[in-house]
Amino acid sequence: MALAWSNMNIGLGSYKKTMSFEVSCSRKRDRDRERGSNNIHPYKVVEITPPPKSLGVRCLPPNLQCGESVTIEGQAYTISAVTLRYQLRKGKYEQREKRLDVLSTGRYLVNLYLENLLEQS
Fold first, then answer.
1. Which stretches does UniProt call biased (Basic and acidic residues) (predicted)?
2. What band does 10 get if pLDDT is binned at 50, 70 and 90?
3. 92-104 vs 41-47, strand pairing mode
4. Where are the beta strands (DSSP E) in the chain?
5. CA 48 to CA 103: how far, in whole Å?
6. What is the pTM (predicted TM-score) of this model?
7. What is the structure's pLDDT at 103?
8. Nearest-CA neighbor of 55 among 69, 71, 41?
9. Distance CA 89, CA 98 (A)
């Protein structure tokens, strides 16, 4: 019985390790560190095709816009929406979250084609 219990503890320990993660994006120059600006920012990325699927937190350039293409784990996606959320804290608004809603590039093109057909009818 003690052997089975130790195996269970090992399994739980590895499960806890997979649940926690840390995202750190590096800065390119020491000069940028002094100014406080980052060249790469973390985004929460969600594929919005039903059902929505979280693609995790990714470090991407700060100036992404709708319609741009990004590659995540070898798969090409097109940005459908960029959402920035702010929170009022001590009289100032601070950025709380950056989120990208993406579609696979093939799905994005099919949606554009179908919208075009709908407008023409």
1. 26-36
2. very low
3. parallel
4. 41-47, 53-60, 69-72, 75-89, 92-104
5. 6
6. 0.65
7. 95
8. 71
9. 17
